[in-house]
Amino acid sequence: MAITYNKKTGEIITSSSIPFDSVVTEMITKDGLGYDNDIEQISPDDYYYDIENKKIIKKPDTSKPYHSFNYETKELETNQELLIQSVIETRNKLLQGTDWTQLDDIPKETKIKWKGYRQQLRDITEQEGFPNDVKFPEPPK
Predict the structure, then answer these.
(1) Which of 57, 78, 99 is the last residue before a domain boundary?
(2) What is the full DSSP assignment across 87-136?
(3) Is residue 71 a contact partner of residue 11, using CB atoms and an 8 Å limit?
(4) CA separation for the pair 77, 134 (Å, rounded)
(5) In this predicted model, what pLDDT tens digit does every residue of 31-85 receive, in sequence order?
(6) The domain containing residue 99 runs over which residues?
(7) For the whole model, what pTM was predicted?
(8) Which of helix, strand or coil describes residue 32?
(9) Same domain, yes or no, for 60 and 102?
(10) How many CB atoms lie within 10 A of CB 137?
(11) Who is most buried in 60, 79, 91, 126, counting CB within 10 A?
């Protein structure tokens, strides 16, 4: 297999079973991942090349929009502004999904039951662990 990677950071640009002549390419195996010498393409989004140890390493999960991988430190980083935005969007969707509980034609018991839940959702930003460790309340049954 051939990979094209950034020599400074180990960021994998492409992977292929055919080497590219016009860019920095190194023939490697996937031994670092416990594979035999299979010819198999890998996703540059999921792996990086450990230059010192000459191994392909799986990156931490970066599927959340507020997570990114730092190729210098080899660690997952969290964009706090995007995380806050994500938590607030989730909270707003949950609130919107319960708006019906406060309509005029809803029984008073139902309104009271859902009022506390809705207030807990509004108070999410006041939680001690916000935004990194948020505990969403359970809706009433």
Answers:
(1) 78
(2) HHHHHHHHHHTTGGGGSTTS-HHHHHHHHHHHHHHHGGGGSTTTTTS--P
(3) yes
(4) 18
(5) 444 433 443 567 778 888 888 888 888 899 988 999 999 999 999 999 999 999 9
(6) 80-126
(7) 0.68
(8) helix
(9) no
(10) 14
(11) 91
End position of a domain, from candidates 78, 102, 118: 78
Q: Give every CB contact of residue 2 below 8 A, 6+ residues apart in sequence.
A: 15, 16, 17, 18, 19, 20, 25, 26, 27, 28
Amino acid 1: pLDDT: 59
Q: Which residue has the higher pLDDT, 39 or 133?
A: 133
| Residue whose C-alpha is closest to residue 22's, from 30, 14, 31 | 14
Distance CA 19, CA 11 (A): 17
Which tokens belong to 19? 């080497």
Instruction: Tell me how far CA of residue 57 lies from CA of 63, 90, 111, 113, 133, in angstroms.
Output: 17, 32, 52, 50, 28
Residue partners of 79: CB distance under 8 A and separation at least 6: 66, 67, 68
